[in-house]
Specification:
Blueprint (H helix, E strand, L loop, with lengths): L5 H11 L11 H5 L10 E7 L5 E7 L4 E6 L8 H15 L3 H9 E6 L4 H6 L20 H13 L3 E7 L4 E3 L8 E4 L11 H18 L6 E3 L9 H7 L3 E7 L9 H20 L15 E3 L1 E7 L7 E10 L2 E10 L7 E7 L6
Parallel strand pairs: 3-4, 3-5, 5-9, 7-8, 11-14
Antiparallel strand pairs: 1-2, 2-4, 6-10, 7-9, 11-12, 12-13
Length: about 350
């Protein structure tokens, strides 16, 4: 597999990072002004509106026969993939590196960088009508779900990238490392059979994992492949559209998800590069070498001499009076010995 080097990825990210986007709360107003600068090379179009009539945009670039559809912020409070996409857009319009000309020659790329602008505005998972778009693939009650399906069927991609964020609770199984990036080749039905589509999806994930192991070894996990009958990825995979799920997670001391953004960018670029340069997607077995996600983390643990009284806390992100606030909530007063805090505070004596 043709794996991009860590030095190349680090250098191009540093140069092309879209610095106007920062932190976890990314709204339509944050990206609206950026679309104009991509019109020289992308076809930028408004493809619809949200339930509250916020614009939803698509960017298309490339002339190749390999079609790839990528979308982010299906959940409004999961913005790491959105930031990484705009970093990639900058690479495409600014970089003269051969890998980008090769991608544009071999592939046609369609991006929907913010599918749920209503949820993004108020920093919620759901849309304005309290519908989880990632569980609306069958009924398609939401305008945004209908829009995504129309784009999917009209474009007919060979591969899809479904970009999400995952909670800070996840670690890489068998380690004490956060699951900074997790991948999934979604199941098509309850038996989780290895269909041709799933194995082709796994092949692309293998290439991304191989690259990441050179950059953040042992910080990459595999998300559960339990079949969800109404989920987007599962249904798209079932319909014959190979769908790669990327879950951007926590990295030490990275609550703004800026390091995670970088590794998400690395993953997307490696995946597209691999698709552009690969004729056969048959080699997939190494997918199962990626450790599963586990759940051992809390954000903060207060430790006491009597360990039975250790207390765990998790951050809850909210918008209060128009500002992004992370509130610390007590979530567990019976912390298991196997649990770890991203931060731990040790107190002498027993809790009173």
């Amino acid at each position: 597999m043709n794996t991009l080097s860590a030095d190349f990825l680090e250098n191009i990210f540093t140069v092309q990072k879209e610095n106007s986007l920062h932190g976890k709360w990314i709204t339509y107003k944050d990206i609206e002004h950026l679309f104009y600068k991509y019109e020289s090379q992308f076809v930028v179009s408004q493809i619809g509106t949200s339930e509250e009539n916020r614009p939803i945009h698509q960017l298309q670039v490339g002339t190749g026969s390999k079609k790839i559809l990528l979308w982010s912020q299906m959940h409004g409070n999961e913005s790491t993939g959105t930031k990484a996409l705009f970093d990639l857009f900058n690479c495409i319009i600014n970089s003269s590196e051969e890998i980008f000309s090769k991608i544009l020659k071999e592939c046609t790329l369609v991006f929907i960088p913010m599918l749920n602008p209503d949820g993004a505005q108020v920093y919620t998972r759901v849309n304005a009508n309290q519908i989880d778009l990632n569980r609306d693939a069958v009924d398609r009650v939401a305008k945004e779900s209908k829009l995504l399906r129309n784009i999917l069927e009209g474009f007919n991609p060979q591969f899809c990238f479904n970009l999400h964020d995952q909670r800070t609770i996840f670690n890489v199984e068998g380690t004490k490392n956060a699951a900074t990036i997790s991948f999934l080749a979604p199941s098509e039905e309850v038996t989780r059979a290895l269909t041709k589509g799933r194995t082709e999806t796994m092949n692309v994930i293998v290439s991304m994992n191989k690259m990441l192991q050179n950059v953040i070894p042992d910080y990459v996990g595999r998300y559960t492949d339990e079949f969800y009958p109404t989920a987007t990825g599962d249904n798209f995979q079932k319909l014959g559209y190979n769908t790669i799920l990327i879950e951007s997670g926590h990295y030490p001391d990275d609550y703004d998800r800026e390091e995670s953004r970088k590794y998400t960018f690395f993953s997307i670029l490696q995946g597209i590069h691999h698709i552009a340069n690969t004729l056969s997607f048959d080699d997939y077995e190494a997918y199962f070498d990626i450790p599963n996600n586990d759940k051992i983390f809390y954000d903060i643990i207060h430790r006491y001499s009597d360990s039975k009284n250790d207390i765990a806390y998790q951050y809850e992100d909210k918008i209060i009076d128009g500002k992004f606030v992370s509130k610390l909530n007590k979530v567990d007063e019976k912390v298991q010995n196997s649990n770890i805090g991203h931060s731990e505070i040790v107190f002498e004596g027993k809790i009173i």
